[in-house]
Amino acid sequence: xxxxxxxxxxxxxxxxxxxxxxxxxxxxxxxxxxxxxxxxxxxxxxxxxxxxxxxxxxxxxxxxxxxxxxxxxxxxxxxxxxxxxxxxxxxxxxxxxxxxxxxxxxxxxxxxxxxxxxxxxxxxxxxxxxxxxxxxxxxxxxxxxxxxxxxxxxxxxxxxxxxxxxxxxxxxxxxxxxxxxxxxxxxxxxxxxxxxxxxxxxxxxxxxxxxxxxxxxxxxxxxxxxxxxxxxxxxxxxxxxxxxxxxxxxx
Length: 251
What we know:
The chain is an alpha/beta fold. It contains ten helices and ten strands. An eight-stranded mixed beta sheet has the order 1-3-2-4-5-6-8-9, sandwiched between helices. It has a two-stranded parallel sheet with strand order 7-10. Helix 1 (about 40-45) links the parallel strand 2 (about 20-25) and strand 3 (about 50-55). The mean pLDDT is about 95.
């Protein structure tokens, strides 16, 4: 990165010539490198796509201090996306960002704050909407960890604002593909976060919900009806098929 911090990045390329690429953004405050060794990544590479995973700064094998998907992490993702698009065997017009859960904050921030990132689309798996509000409904250790980071800074409100996907997505101008199951992986039966993201996506040229085009404005009732009943995993075939349709025309 520009400040000298080294990020750990792993990339799997298919045999052959130029290909589209998927950049996977890990959920929560998790490492990303293990996501390259999944059945989903295998399927994408087998279909002729490049798959890229990374550990955000302060996590796993990457240097630096944890930024909790804030502006520094967003800038890192923008730099990584440019690097991927410039690879000799990657089609620069066929790069997709695929965020898991809270990784949506990093994706939304990178895309809204760096308008030179001409990615083909952003796939968002069950990202939060208004993060600080949604955490009241979340389970696990993640909410406490994020609150602890926020309490370490002088301007707590600004810290949250910089990581609110629903607040950042208004500046995103690439197609937005949202994937949502009920129950949500972290928020149970809550659907307000999905509505918040989609309702705020005013500048995107296309909104797709669970693989189907969605007309705006929408309603919470329509989003509830259209959610995947029984829940959805990030490596579900529904998401894999969407990536293949976007990047290789396969299904």
